[in-house]
Amino acid sequence: MTPRGGLRRFFGNRCAAVAMVVCGLACSHGREFTSESGRFRVWMPDHPGEWSEPLVTARRTVYLSWYQAATRWAFGDQGVYMVATGVVIEPALDPEALLGEVKVSLARRLAVKGQGVAGESRAVALGKGRHGEEFDIEVFEGLGYRVRLLLVGPRLYALVVGGEAAKTDDGARFFASFECYE
Q1: Residues 6 or more apart from 172 whose CB is under 8 A from it?
Q2: Which of 20, 83, 127, 165 has the fewest Cβ atoms within 10 Å of its own Cβ atom?
Q3: What is the pTM of this model?
Q4: pLDDT, tens digit, for every residue of 29-87?
Q5: CA distance 10 to 28
Q6: What are residue 131's phi and psi, to 5 degrees?
Q7: Which of 55, 54, 84, 53 is nearest to 68 (CA)?
């Protein structure tokens, strides 16, 4: 037997340091996640939670399946990684117009009290029959989301990285690892 608090004093700081290293290693490695129903695979920091929710745009409602994993680091940095996917029932004559509608609706959906401001879009090169764009949504000064929208045939994908993760190598890794299949 040790005196009361003896083990806590001995292991206290060491355990905290070991826990931070182990958590950091586990979180930074992440894993590949595959969704058969969503027809995609992507690297995520952890196994995602799943839910369904409609996204209402100016001209249509797209029923999306959402997949989300979050990280929280010992020093307060945190991030969220999301993929949303759904089939667009009413085909868009102009894919860029559809992506524009989704951009506005996602900015409202992801922001606090609908006050998100979507920045300028950057085109994403995807190949024949595929359309995409990337943009940032500012929620608070310097904090927000990086979003990549992809339209592959009738299927819409929204990749979202939020919080501090939007500016990290893991955020870039998330976007680069995404693969969809038809």
Answers
A1: none
A2: 127
A3: 0.77
A4: 789 999 999 999 999 999 999 999 999 988 889 999 999 998 875 555 578 999 999 99
A5: 28
A6: -125, 145
A7: 84
